[in-house]
């Protein structure tokens, strides 16, 4: 890919093997995680607002699982993964309700014999039970038992978190990845490949473009005591050593009210694709070992 034209990097849209792997793996993840969530929700001694943490855990776990499956399947189609996250979230939402009702009946309604599959394959029962439960509530919060509109609102928020969260997070594993189409593999990423001192005037970086790295190369390497600097993250194919990409970030050290220092990082540029030869000067000017190196996925 020696004729690669520098520009903003975007995935090719190819699915890899995701059309098979993601639906199957996503369905398994949706069911397993929703079953765990339902039982935790029923048997946890903590209720109310704190239970939203369990909901967030389900959404994150499902979104991460689908994004990981997409990465392993070499999927470069964000739309497909978002759709998988949406469908997975809906499956998890319904499954968690069916299993939740089964676990609730098993725990509090002695003498009632039901099967989890019987409930799962009866949407009418799932909805009717939810309506009945909404009328009386089932947990206390701040000395009261949420029912009616209040409980519907809580359940609505939970549904939005599960479905929306799994949808949005479904691309988290490929969101900051670069793919070499020639070699059919993910490029290795080196975080913090080099640091440069922050320019006196922000306007000095206005000419920084994928085809013009001179504004950052004109800067001196960052001083270790500098409160602000520019960080270069790079991607490079370890097979052809040609496909590469760069992203420049702004790093600033801030001190909180307790006197603890923390580095804040913000993106200055998008991920730019370019021939690796254009990154040679940046890599050569690295004055420290990379903080993190992520090997390419085979």
Radius of gyration: 25 Å
Helix content: 40-55%
How many structural domains can be distinguished in the coordinates?
2
Shape: elongated
Task: Provide the structure class.
Answer: alpha+beta
Give the beta-strand count: 9
Query: What order do the helices and strands follow?
Result: EHHHHHHEEEHEEEEHE
Biggest pleated sheet: 7 strands, antiparallel
How confident is the prediction overall: mean pLDDT?
87
**Beta-strand content estimate:** 15-25%
How many H/I helices? 8
- The unreliable regions are 288-292
Distance between the termini: 19 Å
Describe it.
By secondary structure, this protein is α+β, with helices and mostly antiparallel strands. It has two domains: 18-171, no CATH class; 181-294, no CATH class. Helices cover 43% and strands 17% of the residues. The protein has eight helices and nine strands. Strands 1, 4, 5, 6, 7, 8 and 9 form a seven-stranded antiparallel beta sheet that branches. Helix 2 crosses helix 3. The radius of gyration is 25 Å and the shape is elongated.
